[in-house]
Every structure is written in C-alpha cells, then in structure tokens.
Amino acid sequence: MVSCPARGEPVPLVVSLSNHELPAADSHVAIEVFAGNEMEYAMASLRMFTTGRPLMNTRLTSSILAVITLGLTLVALLAAAGQDEPGRARATSAEKIKAGPAPRTADGKADFSGIWSPDRNFITDIHDALKKGEELPLQPWAEKLARERMSKDDPEALCLPAGVPRQAPYPWRIVQTGTHMFFLFEGNIHSYRQIFLDGRTHPADPDPTWYGHSVARWEGDTLLVDSVGFNEKFWFDFAGHPHTEKLHVVERYRRPDFDHLDYEITIEDAGAYTKPFTLYGHSSHQHDDDLMEYICNENNKDVEHIVGKDPRNKYLKK
Questions:
Q1: pTM higher than 0.70, yes or no?
Q2: Fewer CB within 10 Å: N-end or C-end of the chain?
Q3: pLDDT given at position 155
Q4: Are 233 and 148 in contact, with CB atoms under 8 Å apart?
Q5: How many C-beta atoms lie closer than 10 Å to residue 34's C-beta?
Q6: Among candidate residues 26, 60, 81, the one where a domain is terminated
Q7: What pLDDT score was predicted for residue 318?
C-alpha cells in the first residue's frame, strides 16, 4: 500500500514478503520519504518493522532492495499526482495540532517538557540552518576536512553520541524539573544530555565530553543554555563539519505555543571557524507518541554498507 499525506509528512510504503526473506517475525519493509522544501533534500530511510517502529542493522536481500526501488518510484508518482490511498482515512498535520498556549510549571516558568520532532537541518548539513545567504565561516583546514570526510567514518554511524547541536532523525524528549533539564534521545544511541538549572557555573577546567557541560538561566520565557567542555570527536552533521575543544555553544529555547519549539544556537569555536555563527531550528510536539528502545551498538552491520559521502550537503550540490 502507498499513500501520500501532507507535504513534509512520512510517506509509508508497506510491501508483504515471504517470511524466509526476512529475520523471524519480520514480514514487512517500510520506506519513509521526508519531503523537504526542495526535492534534493528529500530524506529516505529504510526501516525494518515488526510493530510499527524501526529495527536497526539487518542485512537486506537483493529482492528487498528491488522492492525498495519500485516503492520509491511509486511514492514519487503518487506525490506528483497528489493521490491518496482509496478508502483510507489519514490524519493531516492540521488535524493533529491541538491549539493552545505553552504550558507552565508550578513556579510559572515556560515548560518545555514533551516529545519533539527532529529538525533535518541539524542532521544533514548545518549550512541549511543558517539564515538565507549566509555561509559557514570555516577556517581553510576545517573546510578541507569536511570535504574529505566519508560517511563510513562518521562517529554517529559507529553508534557514538551525536554531540551538540547535531540531532538524530528520531524523536527526542525534554524532561524538565526545577533544577535540571534532560534531553532524552531515542537514537542514534539511547542516551541523554544533562542541563543544570540550579544556578551553578561551569567548572574551571571541565573534562571534555560528547555533550559538554551545560548550565542554563531564564531570560523571560526564553531558556538560555551555555555549554563548554566538548571533546573533538563528534561531527556537526552528515557533511562532516568539524570543531575543536574551544567550542562554546549558546542555545536559546522558546515555546511560543503548545505545539512548537523554536531555538537559536550560536556556535563559537576559534579553533575551526573565523567568527561565531547562529543556527535556527524548529521542532513540533509529537502527540500520542513515546520513545522506543533503540539499540545501535549491538550487532551493528550498517557501516560496511556505507559508501562515499552523504550527498545532502553543500559541497556535493555545487
């Protein structure tokens, strides 16, 4: 079955196959195509489903790959024609939205709690999160390194943390208390980021880590998160943009209403960039959703199939 919902929503194709072609209990393949503002940014991800959510790291047979190719062709044709699956009611984004003001905590602060969608601009190439017409102020060595990096060497592909401000293409949850905020990540690894709201300052010499040391303060309804103490191991995106241990990140989060989360992220890294720059992102509240267990580390077979460089970046679009 193939369906074409509203632009920007997943387009699922489900094809039944004989059970012997897939691991035990798996009898469906699903393709999700995320249409962005331009077709060249379309994101396609293969997911093995049993109960509607992905199972990672399964070898694909040639017959499955043939089905995928056919499915993507059908999806493109239906998207162009604006058709939908006959007789099947599908909820649109507008139908899912629950209008209302942003919630507040007991002490009157803006409450960011909830499950949020990822922003693709913080996944493929952070160039896309800049204001229109701006360029990343890369130092020559940093641009050269980004161009040379291959996807198989991406730490995230090796089941390591994404770092900051990179996102994974999966839902994430904010848990907020009076003294702490936690970002819980469904993938690429089942991990979390800790932000202190208790008024503490950064340590004088923080131990470099994947998510750094983060402290926050309120500026009205905006939460300003200041982070230092990063290691140099993670990439900013699929494009391979680097950073150094001089990295300093300032994030400003706002929740203008119940369903939307806006953020501005200023990157300062005198080791890799010639000046600070600001990225802009948006996430949508995911109603009636929950985080699922996602295990990347065990039996990972993805890396051996990754060839070349992910094409969804500025360098390969020129």
A1: yes
A2: C
A3: 93
A4: no
A5: 16
A6: 81
A7: 61
